């Protein structure tokens, strides 16, 4: 069972249009609404793979009620913590060439009592969890050290922690030695404070995160692939992708695939790459099912192309 924690969940509305024209009245060719937030997406991908998952998240207003109902329809147990503010609604506009424009709302401001209630909800549901995945930005009202406190409490309860966040929240949590952190290329740049132009430089940045406390680093490099750096070494994975439809939630799908495959080693990296590659070929923030995966398209190796220039160097 994988327990997810999403401090700032959302409803994600996606509209597909022929082309985005600023100032014009546009008619969508398709639209959908999905439960959103990085941890929620991890739960959705885990549930789609047929595994049990529980999603801990603050919920408020009619938007929160709809989010809870959508999760239940997907077979996900929503451990909702009532809050006074309304759950945010994010908008994505997708064009046929894969260009995605996102409008993310700020979300409600949590009180100290509400923030503690989320931590307590995790404590009461940690028994039986193989992993706890703590994901996403922190809402207003939560200090950057909130994730560090969550990691510390989870470790005291004997749970393994995967953390997907960035900035001061990531830096603060590293001292509590999360079992896995999952930055993307941009977040790696932010964490080490310098540009990363090659895969080799990304490997070095991941090693620095391990020196700061992370036990393992699973790094998404976009179209260039994914890295896994842990105590046994560094591994690199890529996958063939026919066409990118939407990259919303692809990193979350990757983390779900990694954890569902055990959360360590090259086999788990291959699962992460397969899930991420499948996700970018689906509409909106749809999560892949086993039928969407193509393991034959995935290549993982310890022979990392260190000199390869990143397609989108930061």
Automatic annotation (TrEMBL):
<dbReference type="InterPro" id="IPR022463">
    <property type="entry name" value="1-PFruKinase"/>
</dbReference>
<dbReference type="InterPro" id="IPR029056">
    <property type="entry name" value="Ribokinase-like"/>
</dbReference>
<dbReference type="InterPro" id="IPR017583">
    <property type="entry name" value="Tagatose/fructose_Pkinase"/>
</dbReference>
<protein>
    <submittedName>
        <fullName>1-phosphofructokinase</fullName>
    </submittedName>
</protein>
<dbReference type="InterPro" id="IPR011611">
    <property type="entry name" value="PfkB_dom"/>
</dbReference>
<dbReference type="Pfam" id="PF00294">
    <property type="entry name" value="PfkB"/>
</dbReference>
<keyword id="KW-0418">Kinase</keyword>
<keyword id="KW-0808">Transferase</keyword>
<keyword id="KW-0547">Nucleotide-binding</keyword>
<feature type="domain" description="Carbohydrate kinase PfkB">
    <location>
        <begin position="23"/>
        <end position="290"/>
    </location>
</feature>
<comment type="similarity">
    <text>Belongs to the carbohydrate kinase PfkB family.</text>
</comment>
<keyword id="KW-0067">ATP-binding</keyword>
């Amino acid at each position: 069972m994988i327990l997810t924690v999403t401090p700032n969940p959302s409803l994600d509305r996606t509209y597909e249009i022929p082309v985005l024209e600023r100032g014009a009245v546009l008619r969508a060719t398709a639209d959908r609404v999905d439960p959103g937030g990085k941890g929620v997406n991890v739960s959705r991908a885990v549930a789609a793979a047929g595994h049990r998952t529980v999603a801990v998240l603050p919920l408020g207003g009619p938007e929160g009620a709809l989010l809870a109902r959508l999760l239940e329809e997907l077979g996900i147990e929503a451990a909702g913590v009532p809050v006074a503010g309304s759950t945010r609604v994010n908008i994505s506009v997708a064009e046929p060439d894969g260009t995605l424009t996102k409008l993310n709302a700020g979300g409600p401001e949590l009180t100290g009592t509400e923030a503690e209630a989320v931590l307590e909800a995790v404590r009461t549901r940690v028994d039986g969890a193989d992993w706890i995945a703590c994901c996403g930005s922190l809402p207003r009202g939560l200090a950057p050290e909130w994730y560090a406190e969550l990691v510390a409490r989870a470790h005291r309860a004997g749970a393994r922690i995967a953390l997907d966040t960035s900035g001061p929240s990531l830096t603060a949590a590293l001292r509590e030695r999360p079992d896995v952190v999952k930055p993307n290329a941009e977040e790696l740049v932010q964490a080490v404070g310098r540009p990363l132009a090659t895969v080799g430089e990304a490997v070095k940045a991941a090693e620095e995160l391990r020196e700061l406390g992370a036990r393992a680093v699973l790094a998404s490099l976009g179209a260039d692939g994914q890295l896994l750096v842990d105590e046994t070494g560094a591994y690199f994975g890529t996958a063939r992708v026919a066409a990118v439809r939407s990259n919303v939630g692809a990193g979350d799908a990757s983390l779900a695939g990694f954890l569902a495959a055990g959360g360590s080693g090259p086999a788990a990296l291959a699962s992460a790459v397969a899930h991420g590659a499948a996700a970018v070929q689906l509409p909106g923030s749809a999560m892949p099912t086993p039928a969407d995966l193509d393991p034959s398209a995935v290549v993982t190796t310890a022979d990392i192309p260190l000199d390869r220039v990143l397609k989108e160097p930061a």
